[in-house]
Amino acid sequence: MKKLKLTFHGKDFYARLLTEEAPNTVAAIESAGVFESRVGYAKLANREFFFQTPVFADETENPTYSEKGHVIFYGPRQSICVFYDELVPLGYSNQFGIIEDEKQLEELRKEADTIWEKQGDIIRVEVIEE
Amino acid sequence: MSQLTKEIESYTKKAWLDQPEDIEAMLQFNQETGRNFVVVLYLNGFLDNMTILLYDYYLRAKAEEGDFEALKNMAARQLRDIGNSFKSDYHMSDSHTLLLRAACEAYEVKGFEELTELLKAVQQYLVRMFYWADLSMPWKEMCDAYNQIKKPEW
Q1: Which of A12, A39, A92, B30 suits a disulfide with A63, CB 3.0-4.6 Å?
Q2: pLDDT in tens, B95-147
């Protein structure tokens, strides 16, 4: 099973990659190898953080109404966005991953909430095989 | 890939984790009048829109949609206008130069493939600068101050 590993604030978080629903998006992100970026907090939606990737994936393969735990790719900004808690989304997005473990989401929420207070910390991203 | 496209990609890579000099210059602008906040705010709005606009041009070039000459000329004019704004409105000289060079190159491209490569590189660069503009704004503190100001009205 392929997973997206996100490391920031010294902690690891994992999202299951939707290789059947969004194969091209997953492949594009995997092709980037291990990379780092700086996190930002969403301004219009809530309980969402994002970061730019060095990847272009222009096709919206798996348009899904965003929910807690969804990991999506926003093509116009080459960005991965993580919806980490209950929210009212802006609409449909290209979902390519999901964080299903409630305990993970609880831990992620503690870290992600602080991004609104201080943006710009570094996040490390990689696709791993489990 | 053209030499300029490689240079733009190189600028984007250099600005990936480290704040570029252009952003430092922008943060100095209008400090003496006490209105640097306006510069940061307007830059955020400007790049919010320009990244989406350039992405649309990039997708059209990639899909070889419409008349090549018309798309090429429209893209070139847009790149020129963005470049000029970088200089006059935001004091960002590296971005100004890159975008004007990109405009010149856009006028000269021979086909959709060249245009796509150029627009892709420029768009990615603009996204990077947009995120640096975003990081320059103390959003939480500004929202808190705004809420205090608006409270009597609400």
Answers
A1: A92
A2: 999 999 999 999 999 999 999 999 999 999 999 999 999 999 999 999 999 99
Is the pLDDT at B52 greater than 90, yes or no? Answer: yes
Residue A59 contacts B, CB cutoff 8 Å: no
Whole-number mean pLDDT of chain B?
96
Domain tally, chain B: 1
Range of the domain at B69: 3-150
pTM comes to: 0.95
Number of structural domains (chain A) is 1
- Asked if pLDDT for residue A6 goes beyond 90, the answer is yes
- Which tokens in the block code for residue B115? 């245009």
Give dist(CA B123, CA B106) in Å, integer: 13
Give the containing element (helix H, strand E) for A2.
strand A2-8
What angle, 0 to 180 degrees and rounded to 10, lies between the N-to-C axes of helices B21-28 and B36-62? 140
* A73 contacts chain B (CB < 8 A): no
Q: Please state the separation of Cα A86 from the chain's center in Å.
A: 15
Encoded amino acid at A109, one letter:
R
Residue with the two structure tokens 């009212």: A88
Q: CB-based contact (8 Å) between A90 and chain B?
A: no
Distance between CA A122 and CA B17 in Å, rounded?
8
Assess whether pLDDT exceeds 90 at residue A89. no
* Residue A70 parent element (H or E): strand A70-74
- Inter-chain contact A119–B139, Cβ cutoff 8 Å? yes
CB contact (8 A) between residue B135 and residue A75: no
B contacts of A119 (beta carbons < 8 Å): 134-135, 139
